[in-house]
Design a protein that fits this description.
Layout (H helix, E strand, L loop, with lengths): L1 E4 L3 E4 L4 E2 H8 L7 E4 L2 E3 L4 E2 L3 E6 L4 H22 L4 E2 L4 E2 L2 E7 L6 H17 L4 E5 L1 H10 L3 H9 L5 E6 L2 E4 L13 E11 L8 E10 L2 H17 L1 H7 L3 E3 L8 E3 L1 H20 L3 E2 L5 E3 H7 L1 H4 L5 E5 L2 E5 L4 H8 L11 E10 L15 E11 L4 H18 L4 E8 L12 H17 L5 E4 L8 E7 L5 E10 L2 H4 L3 E3 L5 E3 L1 E10 H11 L13 E5 L5 H13 L4 E4 L5 H10 L4 E5 L1 H6 L1 E6 L3 E7 H13 L3
Parallel strand pairs: 1-7, 18-22, 24-25, 31-32, 31-33
Antiparallel strand pairs: 1-2, 3-6, 4-5, 4-7, 8-10, 9-10, 10-15, 11-12, 12-13, 14-15, 16-17, 19-21, 20-21, 22-23, 23-30, 24-26, 26-27, 27-30, 28-29, 33-34, 34-35
Helix pairs in contact: 2-3, 4-5, 7-15, 12-13
Bound molecules: zinc ion (ZN) (2 copies).
The site of one zinc ion has 5 residues, from loops.
Length: 636
């Protein structure tokens, strides 16, 4: 029969041949990490029974990397079991960069132990053991892992519905796994174990604490070196670390995990973002609203959240009535819209709110300000008629791009998420609505020549959306703006307007955010700028530092004058040397330091030191003020 190999053309093979048997023929290079048949990833030992097209995936493909890293996690687990047979296996997935595996063990792994695990991994790689798949019934699988004394695996198998269960072997190591994997352990180049952290089984605090080992692997040594270099830079920029050093925010054990406390300087940055956000929204015809944090459960029943989103919601009771702590703002905005009858003349209506919502995130996924339980969304909902959709989408994209650019993000990635056409029944709304909405989103992107990836099956059930990620100084992408159609809520709440024909029509509803959340956005700003904020965002813009107590009067007067012009100024009037005052301001990444000594006091001037440009010499307060206000105005 004939198969077509991507990049190689057609090839005559016997029916029943496997990818593994074809390896040498279909891939001359060694970068064959996964094989897909007619677009489906398959195991290397799966027999090819009919003509098909084959694609061999290497490290350059996301799927290839995932298989590569996930397979390395098997090898790491095999090494751990060889060295520490008493460890119990948890799970070992690939992550966005690298992999981890969780082990139950009474003590954490030491630095030395990680080194010996690495050495054993390298032995297993040299042995070039094939990854082979076996299929068992549920009972057989339970027995196998009971005999291996792997209680966590047994727990996972018991949750699987009846049917085939696949396991993978590589040498003496066996793991419950869906696969697929690399052809053999020898496909792995270099491995580095990166860190160990405690992680609750299934991310639940009520479950046992496991030891999670993180690692990474690459085909080439050079790639590993580059990665480690980037990792060092990422650590330098880590917002959790800078958050402490710059005294921006904290998380408090006494309050609970995933709840951010914004300290004065962090709150100042947040306030600058909020003020800018509000001003730009008002300019664009949005109206600011404010809605309660709790509401009756019935509201969330009507919206469908209690049915589809319950595991993410905090519920409680007031006077024996069920209530919900809001996970979203949409039903609230709908209630305001529906507080009176709406005419087509009022549309579009755009309600915006900077609102903190609460979502039940597992403790294991919480990550500094990037993933929290109290999230402040920069939310808005647009209610419009069908013929207004294009203009509205245009407006949102303009605003989103303007926002990203204003905050210094010049690059972004865009995904157009649409439904899975093979399972149309799983989605709210009819074909025409989906097609119309998708076309509107696409037109808006194309009009601006914005490159995007169309992702089938990535839409949520109630409508297509555009997802934009902002790309930071290290090239990392963070989730940012989204523009989301909703074919569900308008129908559930009968959100309507009276048309020129005098009849009720359903509105088109669009949810959108242009920053994502204030927590995540602030964290990405911190990492993007490595804490060195541009002047307009810096929580402290100017430090006034006195050389000695004799200059205090003028120093105070300068600070006061700048403060009166809304410049964010701190006075450093301590009994320290001017050198150490300048050093402290530098560590706090303050853009300007004004040195006030005898000469400055006498001449009623200030000596200006810029973090970016160094010494700028003596200036009058007026001249300095004018420059600074101008820089702030231009968002430098
Ligand atoms: Zn696996
Ligand atoms: Zn919404």
């Amino acid at each position: 029969m004939e198969i077509v190999v991507e990049g190689k053309g057609p090839m005559e093979v016997e029916s029943g041949v496997t990818g593994r048997q074809l390896l040498d023929k279909i891939s001359g290079r060694r970068d064959h990490f996964a094989i897909s048949v007619d677009g489906q990833l398959v195991d290397w030992d799966a027999p090819l029974m009919k003509p098909c097209s084959i694609n061999v995936l290497g490290f350059e493909s996301e799927v290839g990397r995932e298989v590569y890293w996930h397979s390395t996690s098997h090898v790491m687990a095999a090494a751990v079991k060889r060295l520490f047979p008493e460890c119990k296996l948890g799970i070992g997935p690939a992550i966005s960069e690298g992999f981890y595996y969780d082990f139950h063990r009474s003590t954490p792994f030491s630095e030395n132990e990680l080194e010996s695990i690495e050495a054993t991994i390298n032995q297993i790689i040299s042995s070039d053991l094939p990854f082979t798949r076996e299929v068992l019934t549920k009972d057989e699988a339970v027995k196998l892992f009971e005999n291996l004394a792997e209680p966590y695996k047994v727990e996972l198998i018991q949750e699987i519905k009846e049917g085939e269960i696949s396991i993978y072997r590589s040498g003496e190591f066996v793991d419950l796994c869906r696969g697929p994997h690399l052809p053999s352990t020898g496909s792995i180049g270099v491995v580095k174990l990166l860190s160990v952290a405690g992680a609750y089984w299934r991310g639940l605090e009520s479950m046992p604490m496991l030891q999670r080992i993180y690692g990474i692997s690459f085909p080439q040594e050079k790639e590993l070196e580059d990665f480690l270099e980037r990792l060092k830079e990422a650590e330098r920029r880590d917002h959790r670390k800078l958050g402490v050093v710059l005294d921006l925010f904290s998380f408090q054990e006494a309050a609970g995990a995933g709840l951010a406390f914004w300290h004065p300087k962090g709150a100042m940055i947040r306030n600058v973002i909020e003020e800018f956000w509000k001003r730009e929204h008002l300019k664009r015809g949005y109206q600011l609203v404010s809605t309660p944090h709790i509401a009756r459960a019935e509201l969330w029943e009507r919206s469908g959240h209690l049915e589809f989103y319950k595991e993410n919601m905090y519920t409680f009771e007031i006077d024996e009535q069920p209530y919900v702590l809001k996970p979203m703002n949409c039903p609230g905005h709908i209630l305001i819209y529906k507080s009176k009858r709406r005419s087509y003349r009022e549309l579009p209506i755009r309600y915006a709110e900077l609102a903190t919502v609460y979502r039940r995130e597992k403790s294991g996924v919480l990550h500094g300000m990037f993933r929290v339980r109290g999230i402040t969304q920069d939310d808005a909902h647009i209610f419009c008629a069908r013929d207004q959709v294009d203009r509205e989408i245009d407006g949102v994209i303009d605003l989103a791009l303007f926002m990203l650019k204003s905050f210094g993000f010049e690059k972004y990635k865009i995904q157009l998420s649409v439904r899975d056409l093979a399972h149309k029944a799983n989605y709210a709304g009819d074909d025409a609505m989906w097609e119309e909405a998708e076309a509107a989103l696409k037109r808006a992107l194309e009009r601006r020549n914005l490159p995007f990836v169309r992702a089938e099956g990535e839409a949520v059930f109630y409508g297509p959306k555009i997802d934009m990620s902002l790309v930071d100084a290290l090239g990392r992408a963070w989730q940012g703006p989204t523009i989301q159609f909703d074919f569900n809520l308008p129908a559930r709440f009968s959100v309507e307007y009276v048309g020129p024909d005098g009849k009720e029509h359903e509105v088109v509803m669009v949810h959108r955010t242009v920053l994502g959340s204030l927590e995540r956005f602030t964290a990405s700003l911190i990492e993007h700028y490595a804490g060195e904020f541009p002047l307009w965002l810096a929580p402290v813009q100017v430090v006034v530092a006195s050389i000695s107590s004799e200059n205090l009067e003028w120093a105070h007067a300068v600070a006061e004058e700048l403060r009166q012009s809304s410049i964010r100024v701190d006075g450093d009037f301590r009994d320290e040397t001017i050198g150490s005052k300048i050093r402290d301001a530098e560590l706090q990444k303050v853009p300007y330091v004004l040195v006030i000594g005898k000469r400055e006091s006498a001449r009623r001037e200030v000596s200006v030191r810029s973090k970016k440009k160094g010494q700028l010499g003596a200036q009058t307060v007026d001249a300095f003020k004018k420059n600074v206000l101008d820089e702030i105005e231009r968002r430098l």
